[in-house]
Write a structure and sequence with these properties.
Strand content: 15-25%
Number of helices: 12
Order of helices and strands: HEHEEEEEEHEHEHEHEHEHEHHEHEH
Radius of gyration: 28 Å
Amino acid sequence: MDPEEAFKEYQAQMQSFKCKKLVFKEFGDPLNVVHLEDCDVKEPYGAGEDAAGAGEPGRHKHDSREVPVKPKLPATPGMEGVGEIFKTGFNVTRLGEGDRVILSGEPIGSWSSLALFEANDVIKVPKRVPIEIAAGLVINTVTAHRMLTDFVELGPGTNVIQNGANSACGQNIIQLCKLWGLVSINIVRNRPNVEELKKQLIDLGANYVYTEEEFNALDEKDFFFTRPKLALNCVGGPLLTRMLKFMAPGATVVTYGGMSYKPITAPTTSFIFDDLTFKGFWLKRWNEDYRNKDKKESMMNELFELSAKGFLHAPAHKFVPFEKFKEALENTLSPKGLVGHKCILDFREMHAEQEKEWAKEREIRKAKEKEEIKRKGAIAKADLEKVMKERERQKTEEKDKGKK
């Protein structure tokens, strides 16, 4: 079969698959605009079945008109998740059926039972990495890693302060600080079970954990630990303004979110006397700058190894069946952010049912392939017999001519 014919056959196979996916056709409140739909699989790139897709507040900003880059509508949410390759596309060689993969951080559309992505948009993950870690690795863990390595040279014993410390990214920051010998000072919002939360973060490796109220009550003149060289901010508002008073001269403040929906206000003294540097981190920009580069590959291999060996743990989480996606959205969009766990959309139960149907389809394809091989073999045999008969005929004619 020539390449063009093979490509057309692959297209036809992909179009025969069905999937369930979340879709939004307008921007607005995710609870109102995101719906579950049965869809055909159309794009001929390569298919993977999602095992789990992680939900985080930052992932829903597309729906709320709060990011500068918006997808073309209609669209399927989801910038992270882990899945297994169900079928590889035409001419794909570095991936195979059954390989476990995560998105590279660039495309969206992982909240689908069967999704199609170009080979360069996925990263192969060792199966030793637990799926609850892999599902959120490419956003939260990568963000934590980059913010701790890209802005300030941090040696063992250096202090790092962060707000939103119980977020998925915050928990990764705590764990990486522990692994690299950094001291983490962590601030969380108060809640009924705050002591339980503090213990959880300390067990992960946090050195200090304060509620916002406890931190605001600290006197910067009596601050008992070395002033931080790096602040990581995902909250903003008055809390960050208070944090600035505790920073070391020449320190750097990196903002990667604004969960309080309040502006960042910095006093003049932070610039003149403290000489603070204010930076922003946007993972999309970093992915564009380092797409398919050695630096990214090296980092991902490091994170895979740390996860596989149990040095990195997933944040407190709950697997939510895909059909109950609204529960996950409600959890993620909670204005108080005090639910206490992250929701991971779980496709495995759905796949158990679909796998039977897909197994039948695979058997049909294999049977067709065998028939095609058999047919081609029969044709080749018939052609060979024709050639042999023609040669015999020519030999006979030559003999007859010789006799005459």
